[in-house]
């Protein structure tokens, strides 16, 4: 009896070790292969500036309260409060010590699109790499080159304030296993080039789903409710449903494009709340890109 018990315990121990090993392997940080960042040609700074606006980088990475030209000093420091703790936005200025001035393109790109830190650790999805994962290598490279042209700041953002168990970065591998993907959020039949461009902008650099899609208790998107509206992270009201079954139900594609450019709805209401910053960035895009975003939103299934 004792011998059988010991064998059973031993077998369970082996299974447990194997299970832990499998978890570590499956959930390990997975950067792009180095070749992903090769052969991209000379950086296009004009495109990099456009990608910068698409991504709304300035909205989070400027110093709190900064305005005008000071907004381009990307010293970070914004505190983002969540159910999991408070995240402090980092400095992404070209400063060699406090910012990303000494980073390589691969280090920057893997952080942005794979959620892998410079030290090889998992990053928290407060950086919306779950959306940026859809960005092309060329857009990432051009953005990186543009960021290098901006003013330096030697300010270091405070560390995140994350309690147990969310401060265990190994667990983020499990979160990625469940929720991280670089595949399209929706499959649209007969999507033309304009809709495909809009899908790229909305699902990728524009990261619209980060606010407009509801989440489960682990912070993952409810995939069947893509862009169907969500709780306001600032605490009051709700982020609207922007599928054809929600706020934009009666809007034409032209109405949506005009709203992104001017900040005025068809009813002559003006943009408000956190959307003010988003609309300001959208206004800097080309007319074609704003129209592509509108076409994609109108092509979505109504929720």
UniProtKB/TrEMBL annotation:
Pfam families named in the record: Cytochrom_C (PF00034)
Heme recorded as keyword: yes
Keywords noted in UniProt: Heme, Iron, Metal-binding
Family annotation (InterPro entries): Cyt_c-like_dom, Cyt_c-like_dom_sf, Cytochrome_c-type_DH
Domain Cytochrome c: 43-151, 193-301
Domain of life: Bacteria
PANTHER family (alphabetical): ALCOHOL DEHYDROGENASE CYTOCHROME C SUBUNIT, BLL4482 PROTEIN-RELATED
Name of this protein: Cytochrome c
Organism (species): Rhizobium alvei
């Amino acid at each position: 009896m004792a011998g059988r018990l010991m064998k059973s315990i031993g077998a369970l121990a082996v299974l447990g070790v194997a299970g832990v090993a499998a978890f570590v392997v499956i959930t390990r940080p997975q950067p792009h292969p180095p070749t992903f960042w090769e052969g991209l040609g000379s950086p296009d700074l004009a495109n990099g500036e456009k990608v910068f606006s698409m991504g709304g980088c300035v909205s989070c990475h400027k110093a709190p309260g900064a305005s005008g030209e000071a907004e381009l000093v990307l010293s970070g420091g914004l505190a983002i409060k969540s159910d999991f703790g408070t995240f402090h936005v980092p400095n992404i200025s070209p400063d060699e010590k406090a910012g990303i001035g000494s980073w390589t393109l691969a280090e920057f790109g893997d952080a942005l699109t794979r959620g892998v830190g410079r030290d090889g650790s998992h990053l928290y999805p407060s950086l919306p790499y779950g959306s940026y994962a859809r960005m092309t290598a060329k857009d990432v490279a051009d953005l990186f080159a543009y960021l290098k042209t901006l003013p330096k700041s030697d300010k270091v953002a405070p560390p995140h304030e994350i309690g147990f168990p969310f401060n265990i970065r190994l667990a983020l591998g499990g979160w990625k296993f469940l929720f991280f993907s670089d595949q399209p959020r929706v499959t649209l039949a007969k999507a033309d080039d304009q809709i495909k461009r809009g899908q790229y902008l909305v699902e990728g650099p524009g990261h619209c789903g980060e606010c407009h899609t509801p989440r489960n208790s682990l912070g993952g998107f409810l995939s069947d409710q893509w862009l169907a509206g969500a709780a306001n992270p600032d605490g009051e009201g709700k982020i609207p449903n922007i599928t054809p079954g929600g706020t934009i139900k009666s809007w034409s594609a032209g109405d949506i494009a005009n709203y992104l450019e001017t900040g005025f709805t068809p009813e002559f209401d003006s943009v408000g709340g956190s959307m003010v910053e988003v609309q300001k960035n959208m206004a800097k895009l080309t007319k074609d890109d704003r129209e592509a975003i509108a076409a994609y939103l109108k092509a979505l299934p109504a929720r």
